[in-house]
Amino acid sequence: MCDVCHDSLCRKLFTMVWGTPRYGTFTFISEEELATLGQVEQAVQQFKNNYIRDDMSLFEKEMVIIDYLMVHVDYGDENVSKSHWAYGALVEGSAVCEGYAKAFMELAGACGIETKMIIGKTYEPHAWNLVKLDDGEWYHVDVTYADTGSFY
Q1: Taking a C-beta distance cutoff of 8 angstroms, is the pair 103, 36 a contact?
Q2: Is 44 exposed, middle or buried (0-12, 13-18, 19+ CB in 10 A)?
């Protein structure tokens, strides 16, 4: 059983759990990706100012983040490195699963939502998130599949 979400399938599916970038316990980021963080931070702050209110629950914030990413990001080219970064999703509007998951982590972290990124395998290598909501429980969030309509 998984120590994070208590799902019995996690040990079979997941290979790595990352904490929220710059808000959590572990981050892997290239020098090239690091150079884009200023623009990512601007996009995150703009999102927060335009869409998030102080009186919203964590669940409400989560749903606004998911809706925002579904509207503003298109599924990208996996051969383009920026598609794997929060920058690709939040600045260029194009990302693959890793970029969606990193963008979700950036937005959620800025909104006070504890989140983790899962790198694992469904039918192919894939990335998605776990979020800890108002009830203290962890929930899986997969914005990529929600946006593309692909579910495994």
Answers
A1: no
A2: buried
- Dist CA 100 CA 73 (whole Å): 8
Give the C-alpha separation, 120 to 123, whole Å: 10
63-99 pLDDT per residue, tens: 999 999 999 999 988 777 788 889 999 999 999 999 9
Q: DSSP string spanning 86-138?
A: HHIIIIISEE-HHHHHHHHHHHHHHTT-EEEEEEEESSSEEEEEEEE-TTS-E
* Contact call for residues 71 and 103 (beta carbons, < 8 A): no
Question: What pTM value is reported for the model?
Answer: 0.79
Q: Give the span between the Cα atoms of 127 and 130, in whole angstroms.
A: 10
Beta bridge partners of 16: 119
List, in sequence order, every residue forming a beta bridge with 132; answer none if it has no partner.
Answer: 114, 138
